[in-house]
UniProtKB/TrEMBL annotation:
The lineage of its organism: Bacteria, Bacillati, Actinomycetota, Actinomycetes, Kitasatosporales. One of its GO terms (cellular component) is plasma membrane. It comes from Kitasatospora aureofaciens (Streptomyces aureofaciens). GO terms for molecular function: benzoate transmembrane transporter activity. This is Benzoate transporter. InterPro entries: Benzoate_Transporter. The chain crosses the membrane at residues 24-48, 60-78, 104-123, 130-148, 154-175, 182-205, 217-238, 259-282, 302-326, 333-355, 375-396.
């Protein structure tokens, strides 16, 4: 059983020095590596679609990384829960197809409008009340669906790098038997060595000093509000904040939705003039920091959230120097490390999703839709998994008595 965590860590201001651990610190670093080796590519594509010059592109990366890092670090420390914040990958994908149709100043104005609306939904508690109404089984099924592709990705990478994948996975299993707390670090170490010997490990740093953010004075237009702000707000709330709160609930944390979404909304307002389309709760990377691989004790996993936040700030501050380090890592190494880091979380969410016979139909529908990778109206599969699962629950389970 996972003890429910309050926003203040069971009312106890815990000691960071006592709670820090190597697995939690590494979980945060894995979270950063996963973010910058994959989703960053979508941000770069959106920047290219908007015809941004290198200075504004670097400022965008600085803004989303600093905003995510500062908010995640501060919220993890304040709440003593693993809060991971990030930029919206579906939101960046939306901008790939739409950013080029607006002057950049109007796009920044749309980012500000979107952040203001998200903040309103957060501080009023409207969004949290909607999410709280979702049955726990459906929430866990959604989480399992989100994580499924990462577990399957371990074996999907075998054909391109069999020695790396099989060797690092075998090292993970052996360490899981002998020293469970260090299973992921061992897999990362062995995977790095095998990558260097087989597919290559190009650990090269970029050039340049600290990133210099570029301030853009926003402009506002109805076309940008309707064409950018409105869809971006829907995507952030549905595809990011809803799964983000769901992940925390699935791991037993009673997240203060007003504090978390309200804070990320306010941070988004601050960094929007520097190019950020928004900062929000993370889902996939949050599971890396919230699961048992980060620490067996749920009350000590907040250190992973702080580690992740510090990593974001470091990479954001020296974007030109460090981003190339993460983007150059072999995709097979990232796949296997992310997969093994999330295995325990996938196992727990699957078990919780089908724990009760009543509601299994809804849980299975949620899982299948969330794992499908479908996208409709620019909104990702996690939201549709929740929606289809709730529809199934309302049709088949609501009002029925539990079996005796």
């Amino acid at each position: 059983m996972r003890p429910e965590q309050t926003a203040a860590g069971d009312g106890e201001r815990r000691s960071l020095r006592r709670d820090a651990s190597a697995p939690a610190l590494l979980a945060g670093l894995v979270c950063v590596a996963v973010s910058f080796s994959g989703p960053l590519v979508v941000v770069l594509a959106a920047a290219a679609a908007g015809r941004l010059d290198p200075a504004h592109t670097a400022s965008w990366i600085w803004a989303v990384a600093i905003g995510s890092g500062v908010s995640g670090f501060a919220l993890s420390w304040w709440t003593r829960t693993p809060v991971v914040t990030a930029w919206s990958t579906p939101g960046a994908a939306l901008l790939v197809t739409s950013l080029g149709g607006y002057p950049y100043r109007e796009a920044v104005g749309a980012f500000l409008v979107s952040a203001a609306v998200v903040t309103l939904f957060g501080v009023t508690g409207w969004f949290g009340r909607l999410i709280a109404a979702v049955p726990v089984g459906i929430v866990n099924a959604m989480l399992a669906g989100i994580l499924f592709s990462f577990g399957a990705g371990i074996f999907g990478a075998v054909h391109s790098a069999p020695v790396l994948v099989v060797g690092s996975f075998a090292a993970f299993l052996l360490a899981k038997r002998l020293a469970p707390r260090y299973a992921v670090p061992v897999a990362l170490l062995v995977g790095g060595v095998l990558a260097a010997l087989t597919v290559g490990l190009p650990l090269h740093l970029g050039t340049g000093g600290p990133t210099v953010p570029v301030l853009t004075v926003p402009a506002f237009s109805w076309s940008a509000v309707v064409g950018l702000a409105l869809p971006l707000t829907i995507v952030v709330l549905a595809s990011q904040n809803a799964p983000g709160l769901g992940v925390m609930r699935a791991f037993g944390y009673r997240a203060d939705d007003r504090l978390l979404i309200g804070t990320t909304g306010l941070v988004s307002l601050l960094v929007a003039p520097f190019g950020s389309p928004g900062v929000n709760l993370a889902a996939i990377t949050a599971a890396i920091c919230s699961g048992p691989e980060a620490h067996p004790d749920p009350r000590r996993r907040y250190v992973a959230g702080m580690s992740s936040g510090a990593g974001y700030v470091l990479v954001g501050s020296f974007g030109g120097v460090l981003v190339s380090l993460f983007t150059g890592l072999p995709k097979e190494l990232i796949a296997v490390i992310a997969g093994v880091a999330l295995l325990a979380s996938l196992q727990g969410s699957l078990a919780a999703a089908v724990a009760e016979e009543r509601g299994r139909d809804a849980a299975v529908v949620t899982f299948l839709a969330s794992a499908s990778g479908m996208s409709l109206f620019g909104i990702g599969s996690a939201f549709w998994g929740l929606l289809f699962g709730l529809g199934t629950h309302l049709l088949l389970d609501l009002g029925k008595r539990a079996p005796h």
